[in-house]
Amino acid sequence: MKWPRNCAGALGSRNYTQRMLHPRTETVYCRHCGATLSEKAIEGTPRPYCSKCGHIEFFDPKVAAVVVTSLHDMVLMVRRGVQPALGQWSFPSGYVDRAEAVEDAARREVMEETGLEVRLTRLVGVYSRTGISVILVVFDAVVTGGQERAGHDVQEVGRFHKDDLPGMPFPHDRRILADWRAGRGRDL
Length: 188
Ligand SMILES: [Zn+2]
What we know:
Blueprint: E1 38-42, E2 45-49, E3 62-71, E4 74-80, E5 89-90, E6 93-95, H1 102-114, E7 116-127, E8 134-146, E9 154-161, H2 173-182, E10 186-187
Parallel strand pairs: 3-8
Antiparallel strand pairs: 1-2, 3-4, 3-6, 4-5, 4-9, 7-8, 7-10
The structure holds zinc ion.
């Protein structure tokens, strides 16, 4: 089985799992006045607080796009070239840039990681969990072009039968796979 090969890919990719921890722990200084932040309970939730200028730091979640790309019964996966889960197989995925459409981010990440162009066919679902700062938006897709090659933070691009996928390392993987296999979600 061959995937279409007719165009080169772009470079660069982000990894959505590296910043799963709450970013509160990474913030030390007030973005307005530069004073050292302390912590204060705001409506019951402890948040970084600047006692000098009164600024309260609210953190946005990170949004990542995940793409389950298939051809017939084969699923496109990448062997991760970065931590965490270095060397393990997962779906192409990455962070959505600010002001970037989620759909564009999904297509971009597949291109960056695999060199392949895809058409998104279904919004499979949105996945989040208490205590994890990343929200996943998962798409189903088909390959429409491109030239397969591993992106810079990917060790290898592979295809696996949908009923015989390798074990995957991340919290939502099992549910994503179940929803994808069942055809859940909304067609695009
Ligand atoms: Zn301040």
